[in-house]
Write a structure and sequence with these properties.
Length: 344
């Protein structure tokens, strides 16, 4: 172990940011020509006006590479500088290898560990907590963490209850060990309650069948199978608002901070009404909450890093500001990170 990395002084910082949205934009009106919905219904119930969708040959790893490359450039690093690469995704390109392996190869990297995290829309928040712990323990100096999704591949485009909600994209951060003790990633809080798993899920298209004795061998593939999201939206909504309120209180307490210490709330972008409810609980003016759900829709694990990247590119982040990231997801899995911004 590198003694510098293991020192108590080591803090973990966001050194670079990147984001990518596929070129194709689908408006609410275009959707309304496909299913029984309207621009007015979608805007008023969700705040969404449009979403980006992948091209037929564009994969989750392609989105991840574009966001990851931008984050590396922003950090002033190259792929050979990395000690690890992690992709948070609900829509991996394959069962295996991990999407992170594909991204590593496409970026020209080799040798360092690469793995995926599956915590649905909370994947980036989980990833940040996991990597911060590993980096503080001295395992890595520079890590690329990407949230990347092609949700449009697992949406049932004939189900108006869900197809209006999701979009595709990727957001990325380079995390680096630094010596500015006053700033960096602070304590995170993570939760999961599997009792709620059936309220929001996408089943395997084909679970496969182990061969039974006496049966003839057949190819273990169901060619017709496609996964699709199922959601009991009302119940998800109600529990999300409660759990997000709780986790925000918990992460503030874990960092000995008050609601009024938050400079920016960077929430998972699922529904504008959930965002407004969380801001209200925090007594936070809406100008201090990042909103991208109107333009991006729900990009699952990509939504928090895309929102962070949006704020950064607008010049909104100043040294020493306190950021609260939070997400709620299928599982249910939810969590929050606090960061004191360290870039000058
Ligand atoms: N267009 C028009 N009407 C619709 C549509 C649509 N796209 N979708 C549903 N409706 C109808 C319903 O059929 C229902 O009609 P009925 O009263 O005749 O039965 C009516 O609108 C009301 O439906 P509700 O489900 O009560 O609508 P609600 O106000 O709850 O909004 C929504 C639905 C937007 C899905 C909301 O519940 C929501 O945002 N839930 C949370 C989503 C979320 O946070 N997900 C978590 C993250 S996702 C992840 O982890 C992968």
């Amino acid at each position: 172990m590198n003694p510098l990395l293991a020192s108590k002084q080591a803090t973990v910082h966001i050194r670079g940011l990147g984001g990518y949205l596929p070129e194709r934009v689908m408006s609410n009106d275009e959707l309304a020509a496909m299913v029984d919905t309207s621009d007015e219904w979608i805007r008023s119930r969700t705040g969404i006006t449009q979403r980006h969708l992948v091209a037929p040959d564009e994969m989750t790893a392609d989105l991840a590479c574009k966001a990851g490359k931008q984050a590396l450039d922003d950090a002033g690093l190259i792929v050979a500088d990395l000690d690890a690469l992690v992709v948070a995704t609900t829509t991996p390109d394959m069962i295996f290898p991990a999407t992170a392996s594909i991204v590593q190869a496409k970026l020209g990297g080799q040798g360092f560990p690469a793995w995926d995290i599956q915590a649905v829309c909370s994947g980036f928040v989980y990833g940040l907590a996991q990597l911060e712990g590993m980096m503080r323990a001295g395992m890595f100096r520079h890590v690329l963490l990407i949230g990347a999704e092609s949700m449009s591949r697992i949406v049932d485009w004939s189900d108006r209850n869900t197809c209006v909600l999701f979009g595709d994209g990727a957001g990325a951060v380079v995390l680096s060990i630094g010596d500015d003790d006053a700033c960096g990633i602070m304590r995170s809080v993570l939760h999961c309650d599997g009792a709620y798993r059936e309220l929001l899920m996408a089943k395997h298209a084909n679970r496969g069948r182990p061969p039974q004795s006496g049966q003839s061998v057949s190819m273990n593939v169901d060619a017709a199978g496609v996964s699709a999201i199922h959601m009991r939206g009302n119940e998800v909504f109600r529990i999300a608002v409660n759990k997000l309120g709780e986790v925000v209180t918990e992460v503030l307490a874990a960092n000995a901070m008050k609601k009024s210490d938050i400079d920016w709330l960077i929430p998972h972008q699922a529904n504008i009404r959930i965002l407004h409810a969380t801001a209200k609980k925090l007594h936070l003016p809406l100008e201090r909450m990042v909103i991208t759900v109107d333009q991006h829709a729900n990009t699952s694990s990509a939504s928090v890093p895309l929102a962070l990247n949006h704020l950064y590119r607008q010049g909104g982040l100043k040294y020493g500001q306190v950021l609260l990231l939070e997400a709620f997801a299928g599982g249910f899995a939810w969590g929050a990170n606090m960061i004191r911004w360290s870039r000058k």
